[in-house]
Write a structure and sequence with these properties.
The structure holds two protein chains of two kinds. Chain A is of the alpha/beta class. Chain A has one domain. In chain A, strands 1, 2, 3, 4, 5, 6, 7, 8 and 9 form a nine-stranded mixed sheet that branches. By secondary structure, chain B is an alpha+beta fold. Chain B is built from eight helices and 19 strands. The longest helix of chain B has 16 residues. Chain B is elongated and about 65 Å long. Classes of the chains: A alpha/beta, B alpha+beta. At the A-B interface, α1 of A face α2, α5 and β17 of B.
Chain lengths: 299, 344
């Protein structure tokens, strides 16, 4: 507690998920596990790179996807994530022809655009991955079990039961008990990434930020969808979620003209860092590589 | 103005009080068989066509057992109120570029539950579906006087025990017109909505000298899931909420600015439930001091995140104030809120 007679949401964080996360939250700045991105100071030797590629032309006025533009954005994104010289080389740096690659889009609430799934599939085939070795892997634990590599492909969204419902939540069905991660228990979403059939298989996190959802749902309300027209990618799932969280929080502030915390707090992001060691949640440790359309980038 | 001329055929959706599945009916069989709902005497009429959008079948019945198959990760909201069943109808357009219109009719066990679902979010443009105007004697200052809200292609409304969502996947002037036409067809002939849940009438318009209620942030709830989605209180259900509880959370602001003060007013089913709710709340908010605090004279207050929180309980009622700027204000606000709650 902050004083002898005072309790804060951060104390609830500590109560809910243990002292490690609570301590991290308490070390944070103005926003942290209580509802926003982790602004704590950088730790020595910790870093991550997150790429944001945007193109104003990828969606038209009725939100239809221009697949040519999307293909180009995807190539730019993967090239930037890996640092390879060409997109094909980038895909080959991430995956080998012998891999069985599971694509893991989100089917509910604000679903991943099928055009993005198709674009990834095309790019992988173009890089020499046999089509038969590319499969959709959303669902039960048998899906990742059958794969040697995964691409997490959630759409960017807030979620009424977990605060944020993007990268870390994307594997919730692998747990076989999704409702056990609701409310403050969203802090434990990171443990799913450590299941034996999942751990270490995610080579790329590719967030569909073409048209994110910034309020909680539970069903999509079009008033909270907006055309961001971006892809967010990283090899670090926690960093990708942290950046997405920053964008959602900024959009919520813009809509209301005041702080509008996510509720329940998206504890999963800090916890994935501090408790489960999946990556970094601290914005101070994340290098952002922004490309393309700069307007209202929000981060 | 409803444009019934655009609705070429009126088909009727028969459903029974015992949850039997919808019986098949061809569009030509337009005899007005009304949908009777448990204890409501209510009925709905759905057009088979709305502009370019045509409903090819009789829809789909969703129950408590199947709601998560229909909306994984969202069914909790409806079960957090008293849900009976859901009927879903799709209106595809012949041209895919027009998208589809989806009609979801949530039949709740009381008018309060239907109202509660609408109160989760008061955003959007107010729509007068029944075109009867605001019935003054049924309006309460704690909430906006609306029963239907539209924004971005989605219309949400409550009508008696019914909470409805009618959504166009692609918003356009034409789809907006048909979304409203379908909704007007649904509520046509249904009784006007009565007063909102009684507990809302107990919410003071002002707290203390400075803080004024924002009606568009008032939410009626029965579950910590809903409370937490509006304002996060605690990881667990520390207030002992359940379907027998009537509860409301209101947000108050000072015109001069500063952070909000929130009031949670709860009418439990029994005094024991209220006492248990307060004890659990204090145990969570005052670790180590909750037991002693529960024995303090009421109203009482303690320092918390963003200011002071106060509480007051009597009989089956509990009032909690969060974020008050000073201790004495927290006590006074909680006391005043409890007094209003008891007068209910």
């Amino acid at each position: 507690m902050s004083s002898d007679n005072e309790i804060t949401r951060r104390d609830f964080v500590r109560t809910a998920v243990g002292a490690v996360v609570g301590a991290a939250a308490l070390a944070g700045g103005a926003e942290d596990a209580a509802g926003g991105p982790d602004q704590a100071a950088a730790r020595p030797g910790r870093s991550a790179r997150v790429v944001i590629v945007r193109d104003e032309r990828v969606l038209n006025d009725t939100h239809d996807v221009d697949t040519v533009v999307l293909d180009r954005m995807l190539a730019d994104t993967v090239w930037r994530v890996t640092g390879e010289k060409t997109p094909e080389a980038a895909w080959r740096a991430l995956f080998a022809p012998a891999d069985t690659i599971g694509l893991v889009p989100t089917p509910h609430l604000n679903p991943t655009h099928p055009e993005l799934v198709d674009a990834v599939r095309r790019a992988l085939v173009g890089a020499g991955i046999p089509p038969a070795q590319i499969r959709e892997a959303q669902g039960g634990i048998e899906k990742p079990r059958a794969c040697t590599a995964l691409i997490a492909m959630p759409a960017l969204k807030a979620h009424w039961l977990t605060g944020i419902g993007t990268v870390l939540k994307n594997y919730i069905m692998y747990s076989g008990r999704p409702s056990s991660y609701h409310d403050a228990n969203n802090a434990n979403l990171g443990e799913i990434w450590l299941l034996p059939d999942v751990k270490g298989k995610t080579r790329l996190v590719l967030v569909d930020a073409l048209r994110p959802l910034c309020d909680k749902g539970p069903q999509p309300d079009p008033r909270y969808l907006w055309d961001y027209k971006g892809l967010i990618a990283s090899k670090d799932p926690v960093a990708a979620d942290a950046v997405g969280l920053q964008i959602i929080m900024a959009k919520r502030r813009a809509l209301r003209g005041e702080e509008w915390p996510l509720s329940p707090p998206p504890l999963c992001v800090s916890a994935a860092d501090e408790k489960f060691g999946l990556g970094t949640s601290r914005m101070s440790e994340i290098t952002l590589d922004r490309a393309g359309w700069p307007r209202d980038i929000l981060v | 103005m409803i444009r019934l001329a655009t609705i070429s055929l009126l088909a009727v959706c028969p459903h029974s009080a015992d949850g039997l599945s919808l019986s098949p009916q061809t569009p030509s069989a337009a005899a007005p068989l009304m949908a009777r709902q448990p204890g409501t005497g209510s009925s709905v009429t759905l057009p088979t066509q709305a502009g370019a959008w045509v409903r090819p079948d009789q829809g789909r019945r969703i129950t408590e057992e199947t709601i998560f198959d229909y909306m994984d990760g969202a069914g909790e909201l409806y079960l957090a109120y008293r849900f009976d069943h859901l009927d879903v109808y799709l209106y595809p357009a012949p041209t895919p570029s027009l998208g589809e219109i989806r009609v979801e009719l949530y039949w709740m066990r009381s008018t309060d539950d239907a109202f509660g679902l609408l109160s989760v979010d008061w955003g959007g443009d107010a729509i007068d579906l029944q075109e009867r105007g605001v019935i003054r004697q049924d309006a309460v200052p704690a909430v906006p006087p609306h029963h239907a809200l539209y924004g971005g292609g989605l219309l949400r409304f409550c009508s008696g025990h019914l909470y409805g969502r009618v959504m166009a996947s692609r918003e356009s002037p034409a789809s907006r017109e048909q979304v409203l036409a379908i909704a007007r067809s649904i509520v046509k002939g249904r009784p006007a909505n009565g007063r909102p849940p009684a507990v809302l009438s107990t919410l003071p318009g002002r707290l203390g000298e400075r803080f004024v209620l924002r009606p568009d942030r008032t939410c009626f709830f029965r579950s910590h899931y809903v409370l937490n989605s509006v304002h996060y209180v605690a990881p667990d259900d520390i207030l002992g909420l359940n379907p027998t509880v009537d509860a409301v959370v209101g947000e108050y602001r000072a015109p001069q600015g500063g952070g909000p003060v929130r009031l949670i007013a709860i009418a439990y089913h029994t005094p024991d439930a209220a006492a248990a709710g307060l004890a659990a709340f204090l145990k969570s908010y005052l670790p180590g001091g909750g037991t002693q605090a529960a024995g303090r004279p009421v109203p009482s207050a303690a320092r918390g995140e963003g200011g002071w929180f106060g509480w007051a309980a009597q009989d089956r009622h509990l009032a909690i104030v969060l974020g008050a700027p000073r201790e004495e204000e927290a006590k006074a606000m909680a006391g005043a809120a409890l007094a209003a709650l008891i007068r209910q």
